[in-house]
Amino acid sequence: MRQLKIYTSLWAMQPHDQTGIKLPYDQVCAMVAQAGFDGMAIDLGASDVAVAHAVRPHMQAHDLTPLIVAFPKSIESLEDTLHMAADFGAPFVDVIGQVMPIELDDMVPVIETWMAMSDRIGVPVQFETHRNCITNDLYTTLQLLKRIPDMRLCADLSHYVVDREFWFPLSDHDLGLISRILQRADSFQGRVASRQQIQLQLDFPQNQKWVDLFKAWWREGLTDWRRRNATGDCIFVCELGPPEYAMTGPDGREMSDRWAEGQVIMQWVRDIWDDLGGDDTV
Fold first, then answer.
1. CA–CA separation, 264 and 238 (whole Å)
2. C-alpha 109 chain-centroid distance
3. 169: CB partners within 8 A, 6+ apart
4. Domain CATH number, residue 59
């Protein structure tokens, strides 16, 4: 069976809207499940292991699958997270590696050691395309992919749009670079960025060119994932972060409703998936 599974993030739900109120975990999980999400990412950079264990029973009560997002600050520290992910039943660990050598030759053994650790423990790892980590730069990540053929990505393209300050419209060369990232991606994250803002409001007229670009990238990524995978779950995380990811006005209030926007992205992605053939059996 080949299925699309759409998650949100616990980080994105704390708080989930402009009120700034942080809801208790049982209420958060009920909202997420009732909205139709399949799971929730637990971000160990924005929280900690204690939070993961506290929210776990509420996720279980609402049949939400946990996804563990790790920020290992040493090579060895990923091992404990992999064991925790196995215990939680997470489909993989999303690694935002804080071990960041400057030289490419020094980066390769870090990635390879983490991948070997993943194989030994039996929990897959994907390396998120993210700023301030080992995959910080698009060009360096493309070199890592060339050096490490089995390296798989979680594609959050918002970081590279900001990192490279891509002009709009993107050149064919730059679009080709992003295609190379998508071809190595086993999961995806949903946020719309511009060349200078990491998270745009979805319905502002001036942002529509960027919205259309990201929707095209998500279609390209899902199309390629389906080409490579006859079975399995394609995981897409709608991750709209709270302030200071979310822009605020002079009153400190967010300029859009992220909870509503996350559900809009969920529907966009489901529509794309259905247009490509939907869930199927092979």
1. 9
2. 24
3. 209
4. 3.20.20.150
- pTM reported for the whole predicted model: 0.97
In the block, tokens 């139709």 appear at 36
Taking a C-beta distance cutoff of 8 angstroms, is the pair 47, 12 a contact?
no
What is the rounded distance in angstroms from the CA atom of residue 256 to the CA atom of residue 266?
Answer: 16
**The two structure tokens encoding residue 174:** 């730059």
204's CB contacts (< 8 A; 6+ apart) are 256
- Which contiguous run of DSSP H or E holds residue 93? strand 93-95
Which residue segment(s) compose the domain that 113 sits in? 2-275
List the alpha helices (DSSP H) in 36-127: 49-61, 78-88, 104-121
* Mean pLDDT split into 10-residue runs, the chain, 282 residues: 97 95 97 98 94 98 98 98 98 98 98 98 98 98 98 98 97 98 98 98 98 98 98 97 96 95 98 96 54
| Residue 38, token pair as written in the block | 């399949």
Strand partners, 280: 2
Number of independent structural domains in the chain? 1
Q: What Å distances lie between residue 115 and 73, 81, 95, 110, 258, CA to CA?
A: 16, 13, 10, 9, 34
Cβ burial of 4 (10 Å; 0-12, 13-18, 19+) is: buried
Q: What are residue 258's phi and psi, to 5 degrees?
A: -65, -35
H or E element in which residue 190 lies = strand 185-190
- Token pair of 252 as six digits: 């400190």
Q: Confirm whether 216 is domain-assigned.
A: yes
Residue 140 CB contacts under 8 Å (≥ 6 apart), including other chains:
104, 107
**Residues 6+ away with beta carbon under 8 Å from 269:** 4, 6, 190, 218, 222, 236, 238
